[in-house]
Amino acid sequence: MSPGSPKTPVIEPETEEYKRRKKALFEFADRLREAAKERRKTMKEEGFKVVVTGKGGAGKTTIAALLARILARRGYRVLAVDEDPQINLPNALGLDKETADKIIPLSRNIDYIEEKTGARPGEEWGVFLIVNPDVSDVIERFGVRGPDGVTVLVMGTVVQAATGCLCPENALLAAVMDYLVLRKGEVVIMDTQAGLEHFGRAIAKGFKQSVVISEPTHNGMQVAVHAMKLSKELGIPYVHLVLNKVRSERDVERAMRIAREFNAPEPTTIVRVPYDPLVLEYEPNVGPLLDMDPKPPIVKAVEELADIVEKYGSL
After folding, report:
1. Cβ(67)–Cβ(306) under 8 Å?
2. Which of 12, 97, 234, 246 is the most interior residue, by most CB within 10 Å?
3. In this structure, how many other beta carbons lie within 10 angstroms of the beta carbon of residue 252?
4. Which residues on adjacent β-strands are paired with residue 270?
5. What is the Cα–Cα distance from 71 to 308, expressed in whole angstroms?
6. pLDDT tens for residues 182-206?
7. CATH at residue 291
8. Is 302 a member of any domain?
9. pLDDT tens per residue, range 295-308
10. How many distinct structural domains can be found in the chain?
11. 15 vs 57: CA distance, rounded Å
């Protein structure tokens, strides 16, 4: 096969511009992590952070979006963070294309973030307002306000074609998440990219809850078990296993048998989400599902998950 064949990956060298930007992102992330260490000596986490992970196609983004909007409807101030470079979460939350296009990725705001890190605590969004005491400015520069008042923040896509590496962008996001100390009533729901690479970068370090989503399949459960183990290794105390697209009790039995075969750690809780054809009918937007009467099965199941993260978020 010739080097120029479409099936042959071509690794292009990093440009000087990309190298400078990568260096700046890493350096700023290091400074922010040091600031976070000092801040956490005097500030107590009163809200809670939830990382949502799983195999591609398992329904991760749909459930993350439903969870964010359900919690927002219960009165929480929700920050929905999209760590996936595909940036699917805004659409799942119900933002229209025009609004979603206004979101400026976090990794594009280096100067802005650096400018605001020394600010004094503000009135809203906990430590996020130490980054900027003006809420409207945070929304304008970092993201947008979506349905039910959910604030959406995205990490950003791959900057350098063919490098396939999001290391500097994720280093920055991990540092910002570490720096963010939530006050009572504030919640972060972070939707991660498919697979487990984000755990390798320890992007969810410091989170207290991990929601691991899997279809009741062999491959899905294999990834889920690995995610559960990595969650424990990162020190995440509460790991919730969500079995999605369940069609029968036999699906659940099979999934748990596979989990035992892979020596899965005992999850804190297990939530079953039944297969619901309405998801495909209305995707990517979860909004119509939330407004149906009676409630669709998937909404009832994610409401159960919301009860669980509320409970363990208060511990």
Report:
1. yes
2. 246
3. 15
4. 241
5. 11
6. 889 999 999 988 777 666 566 777 7
7. 3.40.50.300
8. yes
9. 999 999 999 999 99
10. 1
11. 33
